[in-house]
């Protein structure tokens, strides 16, 4: 009972003291702060909130015209440098832009903008590619009106936009003519065409002055030398070619390329300079090859005298 009375007394006493000196003791401080705040407003002193990265500040600093200009530049970066759209969202790219902005702030007036405020989303930039294409195409059409001569390249190994039902000579010529017409150009009797020596290409341009590709002519020299078995005089180089071809196929098939400093090239008739490529790389790492061969292919390797004799007449073309 005595304990309860003591507790009540202490609580009542504390409450009365707190009422007088506790919360009330801050009154002078509050009044003083009010006077200081009024003085700051009158002096227009800068507030800390103006340094916050707020959306309100962003909209004032960056106009729509500037934003579109940056988006176009980023789209050109993707196209010209062959980068993916996701590159623009990468941490490394963002860090690069941040570094440029930081440097710019030291040279120009202060700004609270960061890289993410400038870079549009990758999907927005990808949609901008079509607009850029149409713009550049119209510029090219205007340029073509003033040119006196032009050169075109027709290569169906890399042509992905071919939508005709087959690759006959008529369809090839139809495709070429339609593309030229888009730019206000056309072929005439005085036009010169350079293409490979395939029959359908020769037939497609038989009404103009066609010239065979010199690279394709030169490519036939080593190809015939090493693959034409009817020529008895070339049996020795052909034998060496088949030995090298067998060794290369073995190394590629057994996945032992990682032990070599260069990747061996297999022979392909459809690859320009294919016969030379297989010799050239084989010669470059000739001393390394035995370490990846088994007993059978080591014997074949020992029969190869000097592959350098077959690679001294022409530089590789890739």
UniProtKB/TrEMBL annotation:
GO BP, sorted A to Z: regulation of transcription by RNA polymerase II
One term under GO cellular component: nucleus
Xref: Gene3D superfamilies: Zinc finger, BED domain-containing
InterPro entries the UniProt entry points to: RNaseH-like_sf (IPR012337), Vacuolar_transposase_reg (IPR052717)
Name of the protein: Transposase
Gene source species: Rotaria socialis
